[in-house]
Design brief:
The protein is an alpha+beta fold. It has a single domain, classed as YggU-like (Conserved Hypothetical Protein Mth637, Chain: A, 2-Layer Sandwich), CATH 3.30.1200.10. 19% of the residues lie in helices and 36% in strands. It has one helix at 36-49, and strands at residues 2-8, 15-18, 24-27, 56-60, 66-71. The chain has a 5-stranded mixed β-sheet with strand order 2-3-1-5-4, covered by helices on one side. Strand 2 (15-18) and strand 3 form a beta hairpin. The longest helix is centred in the middle third of the chain and has 14 residues, at 36-49. It is globular. The protein starts with a strand and ends with a strand.
Length: 73
């Protein structure tokens, strides 16, 4: 399964929300430096989907706010 998310680093309140179009917005309090925000996004998505972090693979968007993840179930 492939999902597209929009990451929001440096947020005050970490959370995962779905907008009216069905896109997930992941708010994390880590800065977008040295992959810290990407790791926090993976952790937040793992909690949201109730899966392990190893099942989430970042396919596209390592340095972008819009990211594509593959979920191996």
């Amino acid at each position: 399964m492939t999902i597209t998310i929009i990451a929001h680093p440096n947020s005050k309140k970490p959370r995962v929300e779905k907008d009216l179009f069905g896109t997930l917005h992941v708010y994390v309090n880590q800065p977008p430096l040295e992959g810290k925000a990407n790791k926090a996004v993976v952790e937040a998505l793992a909690v949201y989907f109730k899966i392990s972090k190893s099942k989430l693979i970042l396919v596209r968007g390592e340095k972008s706010k819009q990211k594509v993840f593959n979920i191996n179930v």
